[in-house]
Amino acid sequence: MTSHTIEKSLILAAAPANVWAFLTDPDKLAIWFHRPDNALTSPGPFSMPGEDGEPLVWGEVREARAPSHLSYSFTARPMGGHMTEVTWELSELEAGTRLRLTHSGIPAGAEAFGLLTGFDGGWDRHLLSLREASAAD
Q: Of the N and C termini of the chain, which has fewer Cβ atoms inside 10 Å?
């Protein structure tokens, strides 16, 4: 089965430690994405409930090396349990952070194309919120 990968890169006006907190701390994740049931700072499962209280997004943290690398398996309700991989890479810049997102393993094919466009647009919206929240922190 073939799959798609979404790659995004942005420059944030916040130090890597602050950006790391926005990627791992439940209170900060709730600002720009979804609140997880636990911090994403060590290997293990996590879940992010939707407004109905049922899991909306879930997976398992595979690697967390503060403040430069975070990777986890990732699925969401519309995926029927199909797991993908999300990786965040942070590198320090003069007065901020370069952040790279790689979301791989998204199913290919006409039937799944809506998932690809949905995730692509969803990440755009969430990353804009992350940019604003991390700059204001």
A: N
